[in-house]
Design brief:
alpha+beta; Uridine Diphospho-n-acetylenolpyruvylglucosamine Reductase, domain 2; Enolase-like, domain 1; 3 domains; five-stranded antiparallel beta sheet; 35% helix; globular; binds flavin-adenine dinucleotide; FAD-bd_PCMH-like_sf
Length: 292
């Protein structure tokens, strides 16, 4: 099925207007941002909204703002904007690592961070990035806004805390001194979804030990962070031995399924290997390991 079912279309001009439209058009209304996930779903008849509410004119949702100890990213910010932002690359290199391997320029020019998190595809890269960075998600409804952390926002495959009548307006990333991060993905061909991917963030103390760590995996059946894998790093100096322990534990925490992208053993091997690599890269970026 390559043609969507009939639907009506309306453009929102502000957040308030989008929320009004969501309310007035009821259960069968859906927000469209980049459309790179929703439209394929509609063509496959996996989604059949009666109304599409287009938020592409809502300029207040498109911004990248450094605000004290956090970076605020509007939900309508495109992949391409994230990738070209010098500020994001400096504060959160993991975002650039991930964006370089998300789809292709056509998708990146249109697709948004709000749509990516809103779609909550199990192979979607920015959810892992936001998990690892301890992001908060701002959700608006007609009564006001609420802020949820990623553990609360991401409820599982294709399911989030954003209700049908609500809108994701902003993603907030905490800026932490001594933090470094990295993301690496294995894909079958350039621009494809992940066979597996890993992301890591390290915060180093003044004495060079790891004060905080977070590890996330993409497309291998881990919801949220690999908490036990990250725990073995705390209080240690960065190094191959503890990275190997963390990689093994991250692979054990994963729960991949066999599909066209590979068998379970291969994906688990990737979870292990990619975890070690992103920890190595993050530690190198933090200045704790020599760049080789
Ligand atoms: C060929 C192709 C390859 C791709 N490869 C990758 C890849 O390798 N890695 C990857 O991570 N992604 C990949 N994507 C997905 C891409 O990143 C999309 O841009 C993203 O999934 C959805 O963003 P969007 O803005 O297009 O969302 P849309 O399709 O517009 O919306 C997706 C969902 O989110 C909801 N939504 C959108 N914005 C909001 C909001 N502000 N508040 C509440 N709900 C909202 C919509 O109602 C819909 O349910 C690929 C897509 C394509 C077409």
């Amino acid at each position: 099925m390559q043609v969507p079912a009939p639907f009506d279309y309306v453009r929102a001009t502000s957040v308030e207007h989008a929320l009004e439209l969501l309310d007035s058009h009821g259960e069968e209304a859906r927000i469209i941002a980049g459309g790179h996930s929703l439209l394929p779903m509609m063509k496959l008849r996996l989604a059949r909204p009666d109304w599409i509410i287009d938020i592409n004119d809502v300029a207040e949702l498109d911004h990248v703002t450094e605000d004290g100890d956090r970076l605020r990213i509007g939900a309508l910010t495109r992949h391409a904007t994230l990738l070209s932002s010098e500020l994001i690359g400096r504060l959160f290199p993991i975002v650039h690592d991930a964006e370089r391997v998300i789809a292709d320029p056509v998708v990146r020019n249109r697709g948004t961070i709000g749509g990516s998190l809103g779609q909550a595809d199990p192979a979607e890269d920015l959810t892992t990035v936001c998990d690892v960075l301890g992001a908060e998600v701002v959700i608006a409804n007609r009564s006001g806004t609420r802020v949820v952390d990623m553990a609360e926002f991401h409820r599982g495959p294709y399911e989030t805390a954003c209700a049908q009548h609500e809108l994701v307006t902003e993603i907030r990333l905490p800026i932490r001194a001594g933090q470094a991060s990295a993301y690496e993905k294995v894909e079958r061909r350039v621009g494809d979804w992940a066979v597996a991917a890993a992301g890591a963030s390290l915060v180093l103390a003044d004495d060079g030990t790891i004060a905080d760590a977070a590890i996330g995996l993409t497309a291998v059946g881990l919801e949220g962070l690999a908490v036990e894998a990250a725990a073995v790093l705390i209080g240690q100096l960065p190094g191959e031995e503890i990275f190997a322990d963390a990689g093994r534990l991250a692979a054990e925490a994963s729960s991949p399924v066999e599909d066209g992208r590979g068998p379970v053993d291969y994906k688990r091997h990737l979870a292990d290997e990619l975890t070690r690599r992103v920890l190595r890269t993050a530690a190198t970026r933090a200045g704790a390991l020599a760049d080789v």
